[in-house]
Design a protein that fits this description.
globular, D-Maltodextrin-Binding Protein, domain 2, five-stranded mixed sheet, single chain, disordered N terminus, 2 domains
Amino acid sequence: MSRKLFFVLLSLVLCGSFLPQEAISLDYPTREIEIIAGFPPGSTLDQIARVVAKFGEKHVGKPIVVVNKPGGGGTRGFSSLAAAKPDGYTIGIVSQSAILQPYLMKGVTFNYKKSFRIICQVAYTAEGVYVKKGSPYDIPFKELIKMGKEKPNSIRCGVGGSWTGSDVARFILEDITGAKYIRVPHPAGGQEMIPALLGGHTHFNIGEGAQWAPLYKAGKFNILAVSTEKRDPRFPDIPTFKELGYDIVYPVSFYIGAPAGTPDAIVDFLAQALKKGVAEDGFREANDLAFNTPAWEGPAESLKAMEKLDDMFQKLIKKYDLKPE
């Protein structure tokens, strides 16, 4: 080999070592991708994961397999995602709980900024205050608030695990209205919450539409108010907190995340592939069945929305001097 050819080849090798990540990951993916849901099958996060997998995999080009890792109000799933290899073959549903739980739960080591690459938002859902139809608490929402103010800590409110979306909605509700309820957390989510309400162990619940909508349609539950900006056209008879006079708009958003260190090229590829999946009519129809609403935002916009929530949470934590539990 001539000296000139040697240096040409050497320069090509050295230049290749500094290629941008986009050029390194052109062969991704070459095998199936796992998507972690931190709640059991049938839960809201599980339903979101399965719809994302179904409509995303044809645009990704490989199967997307749902892996349920329930426990700790979603913390086991978030921790598993944070600990995964950042090669694009493990992603997960990251809900707003991942922002707040590190502040208020002992032993939580993940951080939504440091532990994850946020790929995109895919959907959101309403938190609803729901009661057993015909129970003493099947009353106008303002009456429930009045009871919570006149007799604080006498009414049991069922929520998901500690500082999940429904628990945060309960906390915001109490902050805005001045009512106080006995908080009853259910780490397994709706699987525990619904039997507790039907059995009278809780007086009302706060939870996502996937929990209450089927039993509302079946005439078992009444929904007193929901947390979205406007009434959901699928449930035009259900008022919002805002129209009832309470300045509460708190839809729970669902994001797709990857472990920190995942290359930009993979994050961008997945974001664009999932954008195509979210845009499909079938994705919307499947979310209608799960009572969620499709909503895609890219990596930067999604992270910005999470940071805005983080600011709100920190103000509430400071206001009430909350400590990890």
